[in-house]
Amino acid sequence: MLTSVNAELLRALADPLRLRIVCLLARESLCTTHLVEETGARQTNLSNHLRVLRESGVVETEPCGRFTYYRLRPEALADLATFFGGLAEGGCEASVARRPCG
What we know:
By secondary structure, this protein is α+β, with helices and mostly antiparallel strands. The protein is 62% helix and 14% strand.
């Protein structure tokens, strides 16, 4: 069942720039400066997207001097993967089951 948490995660990941950020953070923790360089986005735009990802639980922050590093929270994506895995299994079973019409 699609929960509000899953729906929030899906909305957060639906944006192409946010998905790009998540893909970058899957490889390494990065600060905003690195993300600006990698994505070409303006810092204010990037900060707004990072806020959405933080609030949805996809990323977390780690202060390091005057910089803030962002890292992926793999468990958030694992929960979503489990959700989609269940949908896939249900879809396989549903292809055999059929409700009679009329």
